[in-house]
Amino acid sequence: MAEKLAPEKSHSFIHNGQKVFDWDQTLEEVNMYITLPPNVPKKLFYCKIDSKHVELGIKGNPPYLNHDLTSPVKTDSSFWTLEDDVMHITLQKRDKGQTWSSPIMGQGQLDPYATDLEQKRLMLERFQMENPGFDFSQAQFSGNCPDPRTFMGVISVYGFVEVKS
After folding, report:
1. N or C: lower Cβ tally within 10 Å for the chain?
2. Are 122 and 95 in contact, with CB atoms under 8 Å apart?
3. How far is CA 19 from CA 65, 96, 98, 120, 155, in A?
4. Any bridge partners for residue 122, and if so which?
5. Does CATH number 1.20.140.10 belong to domain 2-162?
6. Is the Cα dihedral 128, 133, 134, 137 positive or negative?
7. How far apart are CA 103 and CA 49, in angstroms?
8. Tens-digit pLDDT profile for residues 4-42
């Protein structure tokens, strides 16, 4: 049932008419997908992930991306892989449940409607995580959707809710 609430499609960051990367998110992570240029040996690509910054490119050249992240990530569980001419970067959110409007600060932000849809999908994903016997894939919100990170307490790293006092 949880897979029904997975991102249905990725978002594209377009700059000057060129696709820079695609991305999606879950409660716990943000995934970036960068199409690699052809005819470059895979061993020349690099990616450096800091808690608030990402840099990637081809060794010996200026970085393709060198930007601050929208929110901090856990560097010990963030990583990158090369798969079928695509660099896949997995950024583990430091604040589980936080809705990101873009992986890169100030670049390619989702419009308010798309951000609202993401927040609603993440809230349903949280409901599914906390109530595994129920199917929330067809649920809808009327009115404003609560923040999936802070609704009725904060999500802990173990998946249980910590109630704020």
Report:
1. C
2. no
3. 13, 28, 25, 26, 34
4. none
5. no
6. positive
7. 12
8. 545 667 899 988 999 999 999 999 999 999 999 999 999
| pLDDT tens, residue by residue, 122-152 | 877 777 777 778 777 777 777 777 777 777 6
Domain ranges of the chain: 2-162
Please name the residue that has the structure tokens 């978002």: 11
Distance CA 1, CA 134 (A): 8
